[in-house]
Amino acid sequence: MTTSDAPRRVTYASAGVDTAAGDRAVELMKAAVARTHGPQVLGGVGGFAGLFDASALKAYDRPLLASSTDGVGTKVAIAQAMDVHDTIGFDLVGMVVDDIVVCGAEPLVMTDYIACGRVVPERIADVVRGIAAACEVAGVALVGGETAEHPGLLGPDDYDVAGAVVGVVEAADLLGPEKVREGDVVLAVASSGLHSNGYSLVRKVVEVAGWSLDRDVPELGRTLGAELLEPTRVYAADLLSLARDAAAEVRAYSHVTGGGLAANLARVLPVGLAARVDRASWTVPPIFDVVRSLGGVPWDDLEATLNLGVGMVAVTSPAGADAALAHLAGRGLPAWVLGTIGPDDGAEGRDVVRGSKGVKGGAVRMTGSYRTT
User: Fold this and answer.
1) How confident is the model at residue 4 (pLDDT cuts 50, 70, 90)?
2) 222 and 116 inside one domain
3) 161 and 211 share a domain?
4) 154 and 248 co-located in one domain
5) How many Å is the maximal CA-CA distance in the chain?
6) In 3D, which of 303, 277, 297, 292 has the Cα closest to residue 368?
7) How far is CA 192 from CA 30, 77, 252, 363, in A?
8) Among 170, 189, 209, where does a domain finish?
């Protein structure tokens, strides 16, 4: 190689990675992260590993660790298009902590991962501030995270987020199919909107219709973008409180995420039992009907993709249903009776879901028709 053939001097910065920007982002987010730390967190922000004092687990007879990991899906595209980044953290936290709450586990520690094409400190800090604020609501410590700059793989303003949580539940308090009985009552807990699932469908509908995110939609009472960016409701603290209410006699929870209400409820029912769910027991919030009518989306497809206004489901004993509804109302969560648990008669059809996502569970029969405003 001659001198003239020698490459120009290449640095990490010229390759598109700005480590100084990453350091500035950490400084901007440190205070928000620290607010999620109780005395159990050791070492603060910036260590190679997050440390959590688990001495309290000595008081458990048989502590079971529960873990979950997830992302936010294509909802991040809405945040990027609107240049609003401080709410997407609620979507991330809700997706993971409310998955482990399904089995009655208390979330202890969470970590996050942000991959981006270019570190913009203020933007990354906004994302993490949102994650930290949601962790405070959920009562979980944000003990670590990573921001990775991937120039050439992601566009300069692109990013994606993921997170993982670990929690604990006493084995005797584990919720799930084993506790569900014939005659139990199925309760719905309202969602705050679309939450974080089905955005590929929603975004395609918006694209085909040619609507802009700043379009005012009378049925929604605000712009389309504001509605689509509505944060996921984080249920963890409220549903753990309900699970500890002996009068409510909670048997199982289901987190209504991808796949819709029936598919997710079927995962927490035992083989041989079926939930009969009345579609007319609630009014579908306007955003779902807007998506349906705007895109000509069949109800079957909508039902199997979006939560349609039900974010979580609780199964209680018949005697505990009223107490559970009162408990949820006292915590500001709208809830109502969806249906009941009975024997699975083996019937098939478009209104029946039996098991889901690899789980050989019970069945859910959807009855009636949806009500819209």
Assistant:
1) low
2) no
3) no
4) no
5) 86
6) 277
7) 28, 19, 21, 26
8) 170
Instruction: Output the six-digit token pair for 231.
Output: 């944060």
**85 SS3 class:** coil
pLDDT score for 2: 56
Are 219 and 149 in a shared domain? Answer: no
Residues facing residue 109 across a β-bridge = 141, 166
**What are the b/e assignments for 162-193, b being 16+ CB within 10 Å?**
bbebbbbbbeebbbbbebbeeebbbbbbbbbb
Q: What is the pLDDT of residues 290-323, one digit of tens each?
A: 999 999 999 999 999 999 999 999 999 999 999 9
| 188/119 same-domain check | no
Q: Which two tokens stand for residue 4?
A: 């003239």
Q: Is the CB of residue 85 less than 8 Å from the CB of residue 123?
A: yes
Question: Cβ distance 118 to 151 under 8 Å?
Answer: yes
Distance of CA 348 to the CA centre of its chain: 30
Output the six-digit token pair for 32. Answer: 């928000």
The order of strands in the sheet holding 141-149 is 63-71, 159-170, 106-116, 141-149
In terms of domains, do 343 and 194 share one? yes
Reading the block at residue 373, the tokens are: 């405003």
> By the 8 A CB rule, do 88 and 130 touch?
yes
8 within domain boundaries: no
